[in-house]
Amino acid sequence: MTPTDILLIGAGAFAAGAVNSVAGGGTFFSFPALLAVGVPPVVANASNSVALWPGSLTGAWAYRRELSRYKRYLLPMGLASLIGGIAGGLLLLAAGDARFAALIPWLLAFATLLFAFSPQLSAALKRVRQHSATSQPAPTLDPRHGAGSMGGWLVQLLVSVYGGFFGAGMGILMMASLAIGGHDDVQHINALKNLLSAIIYSVTVVTFIAAGAVSWPHTSVMLVTASAGGYLGARMARNIQGPWLRRVVIAVGSALTLYYFYKTRG
Fold it and tell me: Domain total for the chain?
């Protein structure tokens, strides 16, 4: 690697770690940086996942106070992330990036719109549940104390498969699904997203390393800068007011959508 290569992938990984901790979408910065220095797409995707893994761990650690109230909820959701991450990683190794590339902008557009309108959708779902309740309805389930709905678990499983396969916009998809699942505090959504993303990255890292699909010289540089960016981004996100953090998520999702629509047309 040349000094220019090191600077480019280091800066891309730092930005990716920070953005992933704040809103998701860090692959927008790190994956293109690897491609720009000549790393093949599948190897770049695998190396990117390994590089962002410690950043996801440090981001989750920065939110440990918020996560402490979700212990029972995290067990089933963590299992969904584990299974989905393994499945997605194996799909990538079997099929490569090309077959999925055409779907990426559509998925990102859907996820961004879903997150943007999640408060309205969540309110509508509550009204439907109240309308269909019996005369002695069961108490509302607090996501902190259980697994939530089977639907929420399956959505997390699908998001985890996507994250293991490619990962761009995974954080936005996950934040959207958590918001629709009944979480209304953006800081808590971000904390859960960071931890569940860390689980997905962990299992895909093992898969990619076992398959020999990682470029270690490039990954080593990115590991350090992505970790620093992840911790700094999470510390900054905790000081951002909920409405502003929501706007950041929507802005990142919109940028990712436009970028990948442009790439698929090119």
Answer: 1
